[in-house]
Specification:
The protein is mainly beta and about 260 residues long. The protein has one domain (about 1-240): Sandwich (Jelly Rolls). Helices cover about 10% and strands about 35% of the residues. The chain contains three helices and 17 strands. Mean pLDDT is about 90; it is low at about 1-25.
Length: about 260
């Protein structure tokens, strides 16, 4: 279950809080809408393959959203729905993530949305990775829901955002272990790991074996204020509109 592999610690770098503007983009390349549409279709197929049912709002079209009013404010306000990102690096096939936020609270509006928890589905293609980061406040379980295996590299992080050369305590499906810094934890379908605050982690899918479907069960999700990436990167891609949207992304809903 655990692959104990000592990894070289990279020289310490100061990471900055993730931002949402295009000035943080890496190459400045855009992501085509046709590619985003295909990724969502691929993720929908993977979800069906593993017999996970998703809520009705996840199936709404761009046209549907034009006539939707305040009844779906929870979806708009809490960032529910589809999120396809290349982290501003312009190379989605190598570094990227497909996410579907199913439920979430809202720390900015706790009286209106008091849920203290969140749930997501996530997909990575074979050979794809997601960048090293930690959360200041959120604790989450990452669950392999089916498909390929997933490797998650773990390090302890510090308040000053540095990466520590210390052993890491991990919790996997009721089992506690202490592993060397930089250990790659392999999750097979059905297995999970708890990611605690200040635990640096990434996601790595093998070059063969197909895509992986992950689940995330966590405390309330706050992408604007609770992500610390080891290297400064972007968040939402700049989109080239080469075809009409298949589904709107979670930051694209029209106002009610």
């Amino acid at each position: 279950m655990l692959e104990r592999q000592r990894m070289v610690i990279m020289p310490m770098k100061i990471c900055t809080q993730v931002t949402f503007n295009n000035e943080e983009r890496g190459s400045g390349d855009t992501m085509k809408r046709s590619r985003i549409n295909q990724v969502i279709k691929d993720m929908e197929a993977l979800i069906r393959e593993h017999r996970f049912e998703i809520p009705p709002f996840a199936m709404l079209t761009a046209g549907d959203w034009q006539s939707i009013g305040h009844e779906y404010d929870e979806v708009r306000d809490n960032g529910l729905g589809w999120d396809i990102t290349d982290y501003g690096l312009g190379d989605f096939d190598k570094v990227g993530f497909a996410l579907l936020t199913i439920r979430n609270g809202n720390q900015k509006m706790p009286e209106k949305y008091p849920k203290p928890y969140a749930e997501k589905l996530l997909m990575l293609y074979e050979g794809q990775t997601a960048p090293m980061h930690y959360h200041w406040n959120k604790m989450e379980d990452i669950i392999n829901r089916g498909g390929n295996v997933i490797y998650i590299t773990v390090y302890n992080g510090a308040e000053d955002k540095s990466m520590l050369d210390t052993d890491v305590t991990i919790h996997t499906d009721g089992k506690t272990a202490v592993v060397p810094t930089g250990t790659k934890v392999c999750l097979k379908p059905g297995q999970s790991i708890t990611i605690t605050p200040y635990m640096y982690h990434d996601f790595i899918v093998p070059e063969t074996g197909g895509s992986v479907l992950l689940g995330e069960v966590s405390m309330c999700n706050d992408d604007e204020n609770d992500n610390c990436f080891y290297e400064s990167i972007g968040r939402f891609p700049e989109i080239e509109e080469d075809e009409a949207p298949y589904r709107l992304l979670c930051n694209e809903y029209p106002k009610s």
